[in-house]
Design goal:
- The structure holds 2 protein chains of 2 kinds.
- Chain A has one domain: MetI-like fold (Orthogonal Bundle).
- Chain A is elongated, with a radius of gyration of 21 Å.
- Helix content of chain A is 82%, strand content 0%.
- Chain A has 9 helices and no strands.
- By secondary structure, chain B is of the alpha/beta class.
- Chain B is globular and about 55 Å long.
- The chains are: A mainly alpha, B alpha/beta.
- Chains A and B meet through helix 6 and helix 7 of A and helix 2, strand 6, helix 3 and helix 5 of B.
């Protein structure tokens, strides 16, 4: 027991490492917030474009979506971080992580939003259009609110998954939680900083999961 | 004495789905204040004809005059036209995320841009007309099928349409709920509303319709007052259909 506490919850190391972990937490929150906002916005925009534009847009979109859903984010992060400088584009590691994770989230979000849109019955469109609502008004006031209810659970899952992927920043030197924790582990040869990292992730995610449940509850009306 | 200038005038209307011709040159006019019933076997094109009137289906050819305007004119304000042509669907199609009042007032607020209070007052009046003002705050899932369909009627009425299109309004209802919807339709008729109704409620047709139109295979076979269609039809196909549904 003593040995376990010493190597996983060492009080001296906790005292020495918490400022670094806290800094990492702040960086993780920054990236996560940026990724969630830009990724979801882009995913929604792509789904709406697909709905509006038709077949010529769907084909290239599917290439993007399938690519970014299939290739592990780690590979994408490394490819872009070490590949782009070769074509003369030098992006800071923070920007690369933001870009890659946003694109991955957008790819998943586009599919989720699309599935939500086409799950709303055709009669809803017809009823709204028959009262003189335009196509866009029908989308905003009738279809999207119903689609959103279907979209919230999978979108919450994806949001959590992508936020955890901020840990990939470690391989390109973004000073987020994982990076701070592993650095401290290599200096101390002790697992305590990793436990602190885990605690920091919990601190971050439990409220997000709670928020997701609250939103799901809000959007759940009884089915017809 | 009722006006006899046609409010809706359909001339040579054709509609195909791919290679299947569903409407083959329909000629039909409906005068203001008239209740016209469309009957016929399934697949005869009645619903398609109705849905062509407000262009939920795009006709392949022909013309539809409504309230002095050509419906099929590509330049027409289609949303403005649809507002003046209320439609009631077989499956109600209420918005499940809005209350009854929310359903009725959405177009008032977003299309006619009425302020919330005014839209609410008009909406309540429309709900009162179908006897459901007390259900204004209920969500569709909390209403019976008959009540849902009456809210759907109120949703169309709130926009003060010149014509109401009914697409099998009672077909999805349990038998004991049909009466309340028919009663609402009867009241509408008595208030002078022009109505074009696709339905299998032959008794209602016999009692309330001014004219019954029998369609089969994408053409109008015969039309006339209910006494003629149900009692002394000129065509054998009409007689066969009427005696089939009477059984």
């Amino acid at each position: 027991m003593e040995r376990f506490l010493d190597s996983f919850l060492n009080p001296k190391l906790i005292a020495a490492t918490w400022p670094a972990i806290l800094q990492g937490l702040i960086v993780t929150i920054e990236i996560a917030a940026l990724v969630v906002v830009s990724g979801l916005a882009l995913g929604l925009a792509l789904a709406l474009l697909r709905w509006r534009a038709g077949a010529w847009f769907t084909w290239p979109l599917m290439v993007f979506v399938d690519l970014f859903r299939a290739v592990p984010p780690l590979v994408l992060v490394l490819l872009i971080f070490f590949g782009l400088p070769n074509v003369g584009i030098d992006l800071p590691s923070f920007a690369v992580l933001w870009l890659v994770l946003s694109l991955v989230l957008a790819a998943f979000a586009e599919e989720i939003v699309w599935a939500g849109l086409i799950a709303v019955r055709k009669g809803q469109w017809e009823a709204a259009r028959s009262t003189g609502l335009s196509e866009t008004q029908t989308l905003i006031y009738v279809v999207l609110p119903q689609a959103l209810r279907l979209m919230v659970p999978p979108l919450t899952n994806r949001t959590i998954a992508i936020t955890k992927n901020t840990a990939l920043g470690t391989v390109i030197g973004v000073p987020e939680i994982m990076n701070q924790a592993t650095t401290a582990v290599s200096f101390s040869g002790n697992a305590t900083p990793l436990m602190m990292g885990a605690a920091a992730y919990l601190l971050l995610f439990v409220p997000i999961i709670g928020l997701g449940r609250w939103i799901e509850g809000r959007f759940a009306w009884r089915r017809q | 004495m009722r006006q006899r200038d046609p409010l809706l005038d359909i001339r040579g209307l054709f509609k195909s789905f791919g290679s299947v011709e569903v409407l083959k040159g329909i000629e039909l006019s409906v005068s203001a204040g008239e209740l016209v019933f469309l009957i016929g076997p399934s697949g005869s094109g009645k619903s398609t004809l109705l849905r062509c009137c407000n262009r939920l289906e795009e006709p392949t050819g022909g013309s539809i005059h409504f309230d002095g305007k050509e419906v099929l004119d590509p330049a027409i304000d289609i949303n403005g036209l649809r507002r003046r042509m209320g439609m009631v669907f077989q499956s109600f199609n209420l918005y499940p995320h809005m209350t009854a009042l929310g359903n009725v007032t959405l177009a008032l607020r977003k299309v006619l841009r009425k302020p919330k209070a005014e839209a609410g007052a008009i909406g309540l009046q429309a709900l009162d007309r179908v006897g459901l003002a007390h259900k204004a705050a209920s969500y569709p899932a909390e209403l019976s099928g008959g009540q849902q369909q009456r809210v759907a009627i109120a949703r169309a009425l709130a926009l003060e349409p010149r014509l109401m299109l009914f697409d099998e309004p009672t077909s999805a209802l349990d038998p004991e709920l049909v009466g309340s919807v028919l009663a609402t339709m009867r009241e509408l008729r008595e208030s002078g509303m022009t109505m074009l109704v696709v339905s299998h409620e032959m008794r209602f047709a016999r009692e309330a319709a001014d004219r019954v139109v029998f369609m089969d295979g994408g053409v109008i076979v015969e039309q006339g007052p209910p006494e003629q269609i149900f009692g002394a039809a000129l065509h054998a196909r009409t007689r066969a259909f009427v005696s089939d549904v009477a059984r």
